[in-house]
Amino acid sequence: MLLYRVRKDFGVVTTVVGDDHLDKARTAPPPGAVDEVEARLRECAEFFALPELAHLPPTRGRQALDEFALTGGYDHTAEELLVGAKLAWRNHARCVGRKHWRTLKLIDARDAVTADQLADACWEHLRVATNGGALQSVITVGPRPLPDGREFRIVSPQLIRYAGYRNADGTVTGDPAHVDITETVTRLGWRGEGTRFDVLPLLISTPDEPLRWFDVPRDLVLEVPLSHPNYSWFAGLGLKWHAVPAVANMDLEVGGLRYPCAPFSGWYVNTEIGARNFSDPYRYDMLPTIAKKLRLDTSSNRTLWRDRALVELNRAVIHSFREAGVIMVDHHTVAEQFVDFVEREEAAGRRCPTDWSWVNPPMSASLTPTFHRLYDPPDLDVRPNFVTRSPGSGCPVTGA
């Protein structure tokens, strides 16, 4: 038999892989399998050695690790899962809003076994997160993969997204980023109204059901119509955006275990909407329209017409969310909050992996304090964390 041994703070753990009674000619584990087992065991041991779990009986860590060593898994308590999710947020290199990691709330949906049950958990997520505009940071955690590797997944990139309809002339009505998933749910039987802001249904994949879609209840979709504090014509553009950004296409890894169904949400930075969703040429591409309304000279890049239109669009986003009573943070404030977070982490003796290109805003970056400093590299292998799904692990229909 094969023995994998990993030394921990609380002793030596031996994982047995194979069996003396099995045919000795059985194929050896695939390359990297031993390393994967050891890495997962190490993550489990390190998790239970965290200061945040110091109040647990020492036997809890030994029990979890021994069970993991023998079966390849164990069950987190709700408290352990919430601690892990908070630390995953704290450790995630691409998030500029990590200062608020301690505020995360957990919806435990690990007992959901059907797509209907997972959809209900997502609706509860939106209720708690939206909170009448006083947004709360929330994570919903569904079941772990089955022993045979089949998974429960939210296939949609976020719980709320807008459809994109491909027109005969090559243009797109709605959000061009979601044309493929719109066509997928249309083939499955969904029919939108054909507007620029049709809320897509939620796509859910479970091991024992075909891919299913669920209309997001309208009363759970809080939207903010955009207006401008100085230009009355801006409201006539008919722009709006949903209040809750609930990311659903990343896995949560905690204590050696992976949760492939773990949508999480906080609140928007204005530039996510104003400088990306509405400004990117491959999204809603609104800068030329706004520049025309502002009567800017668009004949040359040297007139900086895009820059001027971009500022006014972001003013409208910030103004509109404030008028609607919906939490949002501007890119200057969140940058200051992030630097404060990094300094607190350094004072606590913790490394803070950071992707510089993600924590700096897509406008006026050099005016923010995040621009003018270096960080721990983003590729530090820190757990717990939110991780991008590996290639081929997504929905077989959409590839999401």
TrEMBL record:
InterPro entries: NOS, NOS_dom_1, NOS_dom_2, NOS_dom_3, NOS_N, NOS_N_sf. Keywords: Heme, Iron, Metal-binding, Oxidoreductase. Transmembrane segments: none annotated. Residues 60-388 form the Nitric oxide synthase (NOS) domain. This is Nitric oxide synthase oxygenase. It comes from Rhodococcus olei. The lineage of its organism: Bacteria, Bacillati, Actinomycetota, Actinomycetes, Mycobacteriales.
